[in-house]
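This part of the workshop introduces the protein records we will be handling. To make this concrete, we reproduce a full record directly below.
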Amino acid sequence: MQEEDIIAGLRARDRKTTEYLYEKYSRALFAVISRIITDQDIAEEVFHDAFIKITRKIDSYEESKGRLYTWMANICRNSAIDKLRSKEISQTTKTNTIDDFVFGLESQSGTMEQVEAIGVRELMIQLNEDQRFIIEYIYFQGYTHSELSEEFHIPLGTVKSRVRAALQVLKKNLERI
């Protein structure tokens, strides 16, 4: 089946075309999602929703802007990113601190000594209390600027300013090393 035939069939809501589309592209599109979402069950759920979105929004596809696969891959990619940013996912990932994740990677790669050798914790001590709090939650516990702002009732602009100031202090101290 040619791409034009697939597009025409999808726009006509032809069942055989939808089945053909699934057979031909499902593995590649699922791979796009799996690279972003590692949990198999969640990735399957996102793929299912994205595939339905593809078939329902086919009228918005414009051939002049790119190939059909690229358009479908973008829908899958955006759906996966949206799912990662959702409250459901962000709440579960907050329970796993970055320390656990980093320790797991360090033990696998042997970089534990290197991380300790550069003295990250010592550099953090040089920050003021507000900066240290912000850096701890954003970089070590995985909060986004917005999540931190909402959770701790700190204006978003203040969060960003403190991050910027803390990074300047850390950069200055790293240059001395």
